Amino acid sequence: MVGEYAMRKGRVYGTVLVDVETGRPVDLLPDREAETLAAWLGERPGIEVICRDRAPFFAEGARAGVPTALQVADRFHLWRNLGEAAERCVSRHRACLRAPFTLPRQEPVKAPDAADGSTTSPWPTGHRFADRTREKHAIVHALLAQDHSRRAIGRQLRMTHRTVKRLADAAAPEDLFQGQWQNRPTKLDDFKPYLHERWAEGCTNAWTLWEEIKAHGYAGGYGAVRAYLRPFRGSTPTDARSPTPRTVTKWILTHPDTLQENDRLKLKSVLVHCPELEALTRHVRDFAQILTQLQGDRLLEWIAAVRADNLPSMHTFVNGLERDIDAVIAGLTLPWNSGIVEGHASRIKMIKRQMYGRAGFQLLRKRVLLG
């Protein structure tokens, strides 16, 4: 396996070579030039398989050093390159991400009217805690009716298992009432008719109404007024901010079964407004299937499908695959990969930090090979 490591990140890089069978480092080279790698490989003609990333100098060095060896492109780097191409493609269609959409929300559970026979209920109508508990109770029982498990409901609603159990076990919201504040008078009671009158006149600013009733003798806080007026608004919440290209790319690269429900709905809304991104999502998921199931024989068919769509960024990615097609097909067919090399690169980084930059390449090489 062939990979790179940084002597000075962004400036000086070397090459690390690892035995694909034992997982042990074989040698360290002071640079990542094709000639240096070709010379090292030329002294070892028995090498049969070379796992590498898609850097052109590694490909050229492997071809020159051991022409008969089978080159295998690393799958991790293939997926990363695909992700970069997908993000560029999403950025080109940034305008499609600004399309407004509203996530479906559970309808709020309204407090029953007195005409519904609920006058005997100890729960005060319009109390924020009572209404919130009614709403939670209704949502939990609606999800239970749809055969959702209690654990799934807790994850979806972000409730603890104990809270979900209490709501699910209660046949009615009144069963959850603790009896400490029912029908208890509040400081706001004397001013509620005034609030209703002013709201009907068109004054819907809670701060303004709070200041007005303060002038009439109200001694309570602004929070109580705002909470009391909240049910009057009845507005439907929407997501105001558009997702970023990187966020949409993350949704596209994530397996549909592991994508959160809200993210899945947002992605669906984006794809409805942009046929190009819908095609991109289809190609990414097809490539993921090829990669995870080692179906390299389908790669040429996948490349032809990508070229049939107007996706310039993906065409650039495909051009790179075709320049290294044999190694890419081998990487998508054989079980070999260069993941161990990435681990050794991290180990080299740790050793460098232990050395505090006071030793050169020769000592670093000895510590890596003999450690």
TrEMBL record:
Domain of life of the organism encoding this protein: Bacteria
Domain Transposase IS204/IS1001/IS1096/IS1165 DDE: 3-98, 249-367
Full protein name: ISL3 family transposase
InterPro entries for the chain: Transpos_ISL3, Transposase_DDE
The species this protein was found in: Streptomyces nigrescens
Ranges for region Disordered: 107-128
